[in-house]
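QA checklist item 7 of 12: single-chain prediction sanity check.
[x] sequence parsed
[x] length recorded as 347
[x] structure emitted
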Amino acid sequence: HAELVAMLRGLIQQHKDASNAPITAQEVADLQALAARGKAAFAGNGAAADYLAYVFGKLVEGSDANRFFTGGETQRSELGSLGAGSPVAVLERLVDKWLLGADMPSPSTAGDSATGAPKSVVAAYAKSGGTLFVDGISVADVNQGTAGDCYLIAAIGGLAQNRGDALQALFVDNGAIDGVRSWGVRFYDANGAAHWVTVNDMLPVTAAGSTQLAYAGSAGKDVHGEIWVPLLEKAYAQVNSLGILPRAEQTGQNSFAGIEGGQGDPLGALVPGKVISYSGLGANFGNNGYIVVRPFDRNDAGARAQVENDLKAAINAGKVVWLGVNDTLRDSFGNQVLVGSHAHFMI
């Protein structure tokens, strides 16, 4: 990673020294020939090589995600893929985006409707000095913030209780360059193919100068605490720009607002596989390729009992059960048991 950044920065500096001469067709061809070697161009055969091959390919061969650069601002700007005649500033921005994690999501959100009073938030970014993992992964690490992404947080929390190894395997540590740490983070599309983004150590906090995370994080919400959860949430917003997530009109948006509201499909984006959906309400998930629907007649006592048995078997087998709730459920004493318009995971 560091050698790739140094190589590209060397090329950028040559062009700056030559009065910002544009990128040449031969340079593009040479970079694309190197990228065409895939992970064979990089040391090792593990996740790090897969990650570098993917992001380097997007950097020099093009991607729909290159159309815009958000950079943590509330408004994105035009960028474009690399080509003959591209200004050197385009290559510099593409390095920032794919290798250094500088294309941070817009920090704006509309808020969580499950609270009954969703509040729009525009967070500020702050540099984190936190540690990626502290004593491994536990479900206690996973706490939602003010963003309306309970469906994602419920998926992460469910996986944290018994698939912590799979969550840890999503990250590739790049170390630090110029004092900025970054990580490659892997997601899967509905067909099980891996896609990668790069996140840096800037995280959304409640206000400029604050050390309190605005969105997801560990229980203390300390920007300098354990940071795998806020990094994963941030990476999910960034991967939305690749167009692989079923986000309807929000597909392609690199923003926290763009990932508010959803179903249980992040389970399949974090651990490859199909998500089985039991629905007694005739739920229609459109073209969500992650989800396979198993409808049942909710008025049939036998069908309801079978679903209950299936869920028990799944939980006892260590599988994650994600629960979407439409209406608040209270017991006979009026105590709230399940929150309406909210996602839960079952243990």
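[x] summary fact logged: The radius of gyration is 21 Å.
[ ] second reviewer sign-off
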